[in-house]
Amino acid sequence: AIHVHGTLVPYTFHPILVELTEEEQHEYVELSGRISRAYAQGNGDSWYEFENAREALLRKRANILKHATNKITQVRDVIEGLELKKYLLVYAAEGLSPLTEQRQDTQLVELLRGFGLDTEMYDGDTPDNTRKDLEERLDEGRLHALVAMRCLDQGIDIPEARTALFVASTTNPRQYVQRRGRILRRPKRSSSNKDRADLYDFIVVPPEPTPETFEIEKRLVAREVLRARTLAYSASNRLSALEALLPVIAAYHLEDQPL
Description:
9 helices; six-stranded parallel beta sheet; single chain; alpha/beta
């Protein structure tokens, strides 16, 4: 179990499957076709140019998933259902949506503030002294939520943090395990009533792949599912969390994927 030696609290893991909009699906399918053709063509005249072109297509397609519009709606539903709307860490995608050119972090801050929650942005440009102040305010309950991109990982000390929303997550195991650790710390204050934590992971389900694109799609989805299965494995609701992932696992034949 993850909560060893009493230093970490048990947690509940909530995988949330998100569908793309019609426009996003159309763009995703088109990009998948282009990626599939690029693989089939091989190196062409220049391996270097081919690799760059293919990587650009893969990045653009991955960004459609990261910035999926329906994530914002799903986050709203989660926030509405929370009994305690404070001590929140929210991880957002970097940059702009490739379709709407909107920033996800800005949308999330507006959404949370719309619930009357005192919410601040926390990113790589936030000065160290400001970061420390934001961490302390969240830990003391004077700030309800922090919306961050990538920088709420190592070296952050907010023991009272108890709900994390992975709106856009990483597929790097070291990073997502660190992010989980941010909400599992047992508080130092004896007056604290934190005895558990909640982690919400928003996983976008791509459109049904064609036979030509299946293997490429499978690699992409497998990384997302591996993260979710790893996080589910040590959760107190392990079985129901894994069950929620079954539709994606079955669709991409990931039953034998190693943890």
